[in-house]
Amino acid sequence: MRTLRVYRLLVASSLRSRMQYKFNFWFSSVMSAFISVVEFAMLAVILHKFGHIQGWSLTESGYLYAVLHLARTLYRTFASDVHHLEKYLVSGDLDGLLLRPVPVLLGLMTLNVSIRLGELAQGVAILVWSMHGLLASGQIDFSAIPLTVIVILSGAVLMFGIGLATASVGFWITRIEVLQNITEDAARTAAQYPLTIYPKWMQMLLASAIPIAFANYIPSLYILRGEGGWWLLAASAIFALLVLAAGLALWRLGLTRYQSTGS
């Protein structure tokens, strides 16, 4: 409870500092939403022309996109600077976090907190549109709504775990931008589409080494198509917790290897 209280206070302080520049806050929110809309519009154009991708309709693909998008939005809202650990390692600013009377990870997570209203609104809009179409066609029923919420939360935990593990590698190699482009950005972009469009080796990669498939595609097989069984949802949630535990273990080990820049 004390940790949660400290986290809440630090987040409030970070938000107050960011809201000193209100125009920048709202402009960045609008632009983030616009970029996301363009990304989905490209997918929609392809599906409108060809009707489906490997048997996945526009509404199904929209569901996959929205679930992953919302999971990422939650992760980057509550732990944005974990993704930007490299700049703290290069500049030596991580030293300041080591001196604060709070856990280093907690301090890092509460720096530069940004409420991504544009991305959240855009993700919710696509999800509502997709699920409305799926409900209207009878492909899913209303039980899919609470299950989808669970999948989004589970996906956020999974993406946080992947991001934390990737960032922790920086304690050894310092420069991690290229690695993040693979484990976070490229993997997320690939998972926005049905995995069946990729060759088998890439499907295995996205379900094992970089397990982003558990954030949307694998649980969606059960929610949208009734394939597998409810155990796919349980497996996705458990896998997310395991990845988070691995990320935390790597983080703790990495902190013991940290050497200040001396600046």
UniProtKB/TrEMBL annotation:
- Asked if Disulfide bond is a keyword of the record, the answer is no
> Which keywords appear in this protein's UniProt record, sorted alphabetically?
Membrane, Transmembrane, Transmembrane helix
Transmembrane stretches in the record are 23-47, 144-173, 204-224, 230-251
- Origin superkingdom: Bacteria
Q: Note the PANTHER family from the entry.
A: INTEGRAL MEMBRANE TRANSPORT PROTEIN (PTHR36833:SF1), SLR0610 PROTEIN-RELATED (PTHR36833)
Name of this chain's protein: ABC transporter permease
Q: Name its species.
A: Paenibacillus aurantiacus
